[in-house]
Amino acid sequence: MNIIREALINRRLHKALSEHGCRLAGGIKSLRDGARLVLEPGVKIGKAKIYSPSLEIGAHTDVVSGCEFLDVSHIGRYCSIATGVVIGQGRHSHPMDWLTTHNFPSNPRLISRPILRDEPRRPSSIGHDVWIGRDVLILDGLTVGTGAVIGAQSLVNKDVPPYAVVAGSPARVIRYRFPPELVERLLASRWWELPLEALGELPLDDPRACLAQLEREAPQARGTPPRLQVSSRPWGIERLGG
Hints:
By secondary structure, this protein is of the alpha/beta class. 17% of the residues lie in helices and 26% in strands. It has helices spanning 3-19, 180-189, 196-199, 207-216, and strands at 23-24, 36-39, 44-45, 49-50, 55-57, 62-63, 68-69, 72-75, 80-81, 86-89, 124-126, 131-132, 137-139, 143-144, 149-150, 155-156, 164-168, 171-176, 227-231, 236-240.
């Protein structure tokens, strides 16, 4: 892509993202190898690298520069992802039972008889309200539950339960943010589906009081917000219905 075309695309992209309340600091170059990105309103992404063939990110999620999304299909709403986070790292990208752990045996540009591995995709998935600390590595095929917290520099090699606080290499459960009965009520409330204005009326520093108010009041309309789809190769922007 030449400089002029890239500048024109980024101008259109910036306009569409701004109208949607979103930001993609790296512009179209953030999307690698034909990636497709679907954003709900309010998503802010720094200079990240997105390799996932299809990735949906929920409303008001923040991604700091320096992240790599290798194979992840979904990141929920109200997530906070620090710099240096890698999600969806393949487990077999460097085979230890071959002659070499290097990738040249699978590269047809380097050898005449490459060994092509036909492995199915195993995208990871991140729930809502997940906080991922700096320099975390999450392997492919995993689910990080809603409300989870992952400590900085952790290696996540298995699923993380909802509202668990994990840390270490490999990561292990340190504790849970709330007692089991409160976790169940939080998950059942699906509070992340409420409009931001409605959430602002809740006592957010007191989860029990929040739940009591939500359970006491009549259910509010939740609907699906409009989404913006950004594609590369071919380049395109499409507004998807709510």
